[in-house]
Amino acid sequence: MKQYSIDPSLISLEEFKELTASRRMLPGRVMLQEDMEERFGVLKESGITHLGNLLSRLSSKSRIESFSARTGLSDDYLTLMKREAGSYIAKPFPLSSFPGIPYEYVEILKSRGIKNTKNFYEQVQSDQQQAQLAENTGIPVYRLKELFTLCDLSRITGVGGIFARVIYEAGIRSAVDFTNTELTTLLASCQAVIEKHGYAAGKLGEEDISYGINYAKVIVACDKKSEKK
Length: 229
Fold this sequence. Notes:
This protein is mainly alpha-helical.
């Protein structure tokens, strides 16, 4: 069974350094791209080999303070590092966040313990599971497949309910599809979908699409590594 969020141990410290170096950072996170060789060297010397280690070491304020005192890396830097590392872990949200999913379907699924994107993605992956759920709930299989696709897209950081619906309507059916998309073509398709349906998606730009594509590439790479384990 595929997990909704990636296994952070599958992203090595070196891979995380490369991802951080290549990211277009928000002004508040530019510090993460300063003195990277030295700072990541300190992390490596501290026994951190992958993203899972890092998230564990920085899992609380007290741990950050302790790690800071031991390594000389500032609390501010480590706090930003925790946020950046955490951005690769998908955060589940309610199924009702997806436009176009009937309220009664959401309530039926909720009554069966399927309350959010993580629950659905991990419990209704296979054709057999979808067929069984359709039989038990009366929800058409095609709607369950649609919902599964939306949940898959929501694994990508920055893709919430509305954005998932927009890119779905633009023809994207998986994280893999997202990675293989030409940026300007997808942006034009998304803008057409937003105008047609009036989705409150805000002002979508090339940077938003690029941001999603880069995160999708990480998810696809981790999924492939996970399959080999």
